[in-house]
Amino acid sequence: MIPLVSSLLLNFNHFGFITKSLAVPPPVPTLVHGRTPLHTFLGFSPGQHIVSMSLRDPENGREMPANGNNHVSAYSLQGVRKVTPREWKSYVYSCKPDIVFALSDTPYTEPPYSQKRLTKSNDRSASWLANIIASGPAAADVDISYKPSIFVHMAGSTSIPARKAFAEGLLEKLFGPEAETIKPLQTLDQGVSGYSFDLVPLRLSLGAQPQYSPAPTSTLKATVSPSLSISDSRNELDQPLPFHMDQLPPLLQASLETLPTTKLRLVNTINSPHEILRLISTVGIDIFDARWAQRAGDIGVSLDFTFPAPSSPSTNRLKSRSNGKIDIGHNLYDDSYTHDYSSFSSGHCECHACSPVAPSTRIYHGADDPSYTYEQEPSPLQKRIKASFTRAYIHHLLHTHEMSSHSLLVMHNLSILESFFSSIRLVLSKGDKGEWEREVKRFMDVYDERLEVFDEARDMWREVDLARGKGRLAREKAKFQEESREVVEGAVAL
After folding, report:
1. Which GO terms describe its biological process (predicted)?
2. Dihedral, CA atoms, 29, 33, 35, 41, nearest 10 degrees?
3. 348-357, pLDDT tens digit by residue?
4. Domain coverage including residue 202
5. I want to staple 304 with a disulfide (CB 3.0 to 4.6 A). Which of 1, 224, 345, 359 is the partner?
6. pLDDT of residue 442
7. Residue 271 located in a structural domain
């Protein structure tokens, strides 16, 4: 996760609970004890990392069995598992994340969905939100003093009326047994710290409805919150979802138009920096996930873009497309980088791949001790920057199927993304709406939004994976047998 709203040196890390935990109860993370069990399990420092937890992986859009009135279906390492609200609350209080995402009845069955199904989805999501808000844990052996910050997934799928109805339901005062559940709170929204949007199910649903194109109405004005007004990886790489970027903002606006602007707004599964800028401008989103930048590293793309966009993009040595725009990065699988000994990006980058820092202390092995060599020991206070890794080196690692290539690329891509958000905050802090709109338009005019570089890199990644990845020996054996059979058949024919 990359926060847009603040420059605080905190890392936002998300944990897909069931996806990464064994399906055999009890889940491993719940066995860790202490004040911050999930931080300890993941190796994160509570003072430097914010850890959030959801049941499902937001990027996993695979079809799965329908949810029930008292359970949510989610993929685990051992297939689909049903999780009840009571179980989820117990897991939350055992792991103690900083932020928890309430269960949501998001359908992952074949779209489109009927009005009856969307109404049921809204009702279930509201009921499960009340369950996680309710004071006290679901089990007696957990810390009752722990109070998580709760994010609610905005339900309603691609129906604007359904999305509005769910948002209005969060603000309605509850009565009777429902009010007793969340007492002393009066509305569900009072127990919520932020609103989240998973774009994958929206894109899937829009993809099944090509005729659907929601247009902003007079009530769907562009709103910006106060902080902004000043899966199997192979399947994920092979089947990128269509963007539907023109249809998404009205859906998000419908969910947010009646809700407070003081609470955080989070979007998962963004596809490009262009989408980020659009959702900031039209919806006022505060936090975006960084999965797309990590996936770029998976397919060998080194990100190389800036905001504001450069005045002379030709100096970036980025490939220019037929529409006159340049790529947002370099496809390092391409043979043009075989002898390119420059760093990953055209400008200065602080990542450990572009600006590796030498250790402040050395480990000596006898003969190299300063008492023998009279070499002056480096000062622990002096930062020593080593030579950067080069595009040619990463090109070599990618074609030899070395995992370190992807690790270096991900480090670099996340650093580029952090710089991107830092620059966005700087422009927004000036409070000049006209300048913001000009810089956004210039970015759109300079950089290719079709992401053709990603498509090319994905194809080359697939070729290398087939040549050197899992199952290579079996494929080579089958190919050899086929060639041998053809030779024998040719000899017999002669």
Report:
1. tRNA modification
2. -40
3. 899 999 998 8
4. 2-289
5. 345
6. 95
7. yes
